[in-house]
Specification:
single chain; alpha+beta; Glutamine Phosphoribosylpyrophosphate, subunit 1, domain 1; eight-stranded mixed sheet; 11 helices; 13 strands; about 40% helix; about 20% strand; globular; binds aspartic acid
Length: about 325
């Protein structure tokens, strides 16, 4: 069978399975299951937003969008845009620190309440990577666009082309080149790579993750942030999770998917984040004393959790119309 045909027939048979199973389990079962998970009293607490690190302006923006009654996907996109366009934030979008060749390359993804996913990897010259990822999800038959293709697609959608390397980031890179030693910093205080999860007034969860990746990475390196199940995972029946820190370690344990599956099995978001960190640190020969990973999670009831390997990680939460930054507990006491 030709490849294209195979993909087509595979997706058609997938559709058959989906239709079949919803007939077997019955649509009403699904609705009532959902209703028991989100009680009316819990819905009163919605909307809620949680994001990695101290990103007050970003969660406030997302909260404001949700308070207007808009969807969680809109809130996450607009919230993340705040930091993508902030030239002083050197870990995301405009002003992000470059790779070792001096190019700012962005990774981002979004997942919506229907479990759809879109991402851009290693994209240059467009600041709003999260918005391009959303367009990949909504306007293309694909999940991931990379490099030049992602940029070309963004331009076709009307995004502005700009040089993302600010003077400050260029200076930092020139300074780094003197020794050219690649050593991801364990914990960057005021770190702002954003993983964000939001639950809207309807109780629907979406998420996004956007970053310029690790400073001075090899050209072409892609981290966990845009990869489904690693930097982000959403299952609207259960909850969502997102990650920050040394992406290679998150990728190798598929951390965000793991957290959502642990919540499905009954763990709280906090317990699930702690278990996912435990998976990393208990790997044979884990070098965890020398790198940071942090997770945030939210379940269908709007309960949240966050945990990291090292001290210094924090989560920003918007709830009851206000936002606050909370220092995280960590594995290394
Ligand atoms: N996880 C990101 C990456 O590895 C970076 C970060 O969150 O600090 O690209």
């Amino acid at each position: 069978m030709k490849r294209r045909k195979f993909i087509q027939s595979a997706s058609l048979s997938g559709l058959g399975v989906a239709v079949g199973s919803s007939l077997v389990s019955g649509c009403n079962d699904k609705i009532s299951q959902r209703e028991t998970v989100i009680g009316a009293s819990q819905k009163e607490n919605f909307p809620i937003v949680i994001a990695t690190w101290d990103v007050k302006d970003a969660v406030n923006k997302a909260g404001e969008v949700l308070m207007q009654g808009k969807s969680s996907i809109d809130a996450v996109e607009l919230g993340c845009n705040v930091e993508e366009l902030n030239a002083n934030n050197q870990t995301v979008g405009l002003g992000g620190l470059p790779d070792r060749d001096g190019n700012v390359t962005l990774d981002a993804c979004m997942m919506n309440k229907d479990g759809n996913y879109g991402a851009v990897v290693c994209m240059q010259n467009i600041a709003e990577a999260i918005s391009v990822a959303r367009k990949v999800m909504e306007d293309t038959p694909h999940c991931i666009l990379a490099g030049k293709g992602a940029e070309k697609f963004a331009l076709s959608k009307g995004f502005k082309k700009q040089n993302l390397l600010t003077d400050a980031s260029k200076k930092a890179w020139e300074q780094w080149k003197i020794k050219s030693k690649y050593q991801p910093v364990i914990n960057i205080e005021n770190h702002d790579t954003i993983g964000m999860l939001a639950i809207d007034k309807n109780g629907d969860i979406s998420g996004g993750c956007t970053t310029s990746g690790l400073a001075y990475k090899m050209a072409g390196r892609v981290g966990d942030s845009p990869i489904v199940g690693s930097g982000l995972f959403i299952d609207n029946e259960v909850g969502g999770a997102t990650a920050t820190g040394l992406g290679e370690e998150v990728l190798k344990t598929v951390g965000s998917f793991l957290i959502v599956e642990l919540m499905r099995q009954g763990k709280t978001p906090q317990q699930a984040c702690e278990e996912a960190i435990k998976r990393i640190v208990s790997k044979p020969n884990s070098n965890y004393k020398h790198f940071q990973v942090g997770y945030v999670a939210m379940n269908k009831k709007g309960e949240t959790g966050y945990y990291s390997i090292h001290k210094g990680f924090s989560a920003s939460i918007f709830k009851n119309g206000k936002s606050k930054n909370y220092p995280s507990q960590q594995f290394i006491k």
